[in-house]
Amino acid sequence: MVVLYGYDVVKEALIDQADDFSGRGILPLFRRLFKGTGILTSNGETWKQLRRFALTTLRDFGMGKRSIEERIQEETNFLVERIRNTHEKPFNPGEFLTHAVSNIICSIVFGDRFDYEDKKFLTLINLLEENTKYQSAIQTQLYNFFPTLMDFLPGPHQKMLKNVHEVDKFILEIVAKHQETWDSGCPRDFIDAFLNKMHQEEGNGHSVFTIESLTRSTLDLFLAGTGTTSTTLRHALLILHKYPKIQEKVQKEIDHVIGRDRSPCMADRSQMPYTDAVIHEVQRFIDFLPLNAPHAVIKDTKFRNYFIPKDTMIFPLLTPLLHDSREFPNPEKFDPGHFLNENGTFKKSDFFMPFSAGKRICAGEGLARMELFIFLTSILQNFTLKPVVDHKDIDIAPLITSAANNMPRPYEVSFVPR
């Protein structure tokens, strides 16, 4: 294993030598869970074709276009209404945010959103949340060191495997329904588009487009599209209700640019540098995936006078970039000024890589950015976040889990209508 520490070395590897470092390092647990057939954990030609297909299809179904924006706006209306029905009673917004964010990827992948009370939907979300907890267990971590032994021992890692199997069954049911009603001339969603591709490649014995790679790719998109954005929003609300002045400043910008009578849209973002800076600072500060997803070199590689053998696992650390004190003075402090010029305009930073960089950059980056902006501005357009404890007692430091994700501490907050 090789660890890359610092902006210069990470940029050199992931951007300047992007092809060499474009492999996915597969930990034994992920090999067992995902079998190397989806977008996230595949390599070589399989990965290239599945990723290219996913990006094209997401674009066709509106990623970066109008239709997906409308879906997010529609879902935001459901979320705002649901929050309104809490009648200012303090609660942990995590579940509401997870359901709303998950529905966006569901509408793209499965063709429809789920009702918040839908039993199958709730079961699915519960399985994912259980797995997030199981990831942190010591037995799960040990699996990566002693996979053969751990296969025979009981523990949370076995429950995790069982849960993924349940999610697989759920996806296969949806795929079967799609196959019954499939019309090649009118694809409704990602699954239909994938079935079209399978149909086109029917005579190709080496095609990477199979039912297995369909279920795995669907699972990858569902997992990635549910957890990271909803967790980032949970962090954002925790931070904003600790700092009422920052919240107030965002709300002033929302009132000035958008007002109270229409839904926020992506065209507003360019006129809202402070809000944009706050969202960037949330992502920088929380450092959601400190270790990054593991990469691998796809061939024997010469790098900075070192020889790295083919298939060596590479960890390009994100924390040293997002918390670099030369780029972000006082990196441990939450400060939207890290992304603002002196005249108040938005300031870009090459060190800002929460989605990683290079060939393996997150395929859903555009979708995630859209969701973060529209969900957060819509919530603050309609509500003021009121803490249930003194501001000084709110701890916004992320909880570091052994699953290598930084999670927000549990909290409750009141949403007061504006």
TrEMBL record:
It is a peripheral membrane protein. GO terms for biological process: epoxygenase P450 pathway; xenobiotic metabolic process. PANTHER family: CYTOCHROME P450 2E1 (PTHR24300:SF356), CYTOCHROME P450 508A4-RELATED (PTHR24300). It comes from Melopsittacus undulatus. Belongs to the cytochrome P450 family. Keywords: Endoplasmic reticulum, Heme, Iron, Membrane, Metal-binding, Microsome, Monooxygenase, Oxidoreductase. Its cofactor is heme. This is unspecific monooxygenase. It holds the Pfam family p450. It comes from the Eukaryota. Heme binds at residue 362. GO terms for cellular component: endoplasmic reticulum membrane. Its EC number is 1.14.14.1. GO terms for molecular function: arachidonate epoxygenase activity; heme binding; iron ion binding; oxidoreductase activity, acting on paired donors, with incorporation or reduction of molecular oxygen, reduced flavin or flavoprotein as one donor, and incorporation of one atom of oxygen. It is an enzyme of class 1 (oxidoreductase). InterPro entries: Cyt_P450, Cyt_P450_CS, Cyt_P450_E_grp-I, Cyt_P450_sf, Cytochrome_P450_fam2. It is found in: Endoplasmic reticulum membrane; Microsome membrane.
